[in-house]
Amino acid sequence: MQRFIVMLLMLVSSVGMSQRLPNRKNTIENMRLANEYFMKTWPDPAEKIVLDKVRTSNLWTRGIYYEGLMDFYKIDADKKYIDYAIAWGDGNKWATWFGVKSRHADSHCCGITYIDLYQMDTTQKQRLAEIKASIDLMLASDKVDDWTWIDALQMAMPVFAKLGVMYKDERYFEKMHQLYLHSKNVEGGGLFNAKDGLWYRDKDFVPPFKTPNGKECYWSRGNGWVVAAMVKMLEILPKNAKNYKEYEEMYLTMMKSLLPLQRKDGFWNVSLADPDDFGGPELSGTALFAYGMAWGINNGYLSKKNYLKPTLKAWDAMNKTCLHPDGMLGYVQSTGKEPKDGQPLSYDKKANFEDYGLGCYLLVGTQVYLLK
Question: CATH topology for 36-370?
Answer without folding.
Answer: Glycosyltransferase (1.50.10)
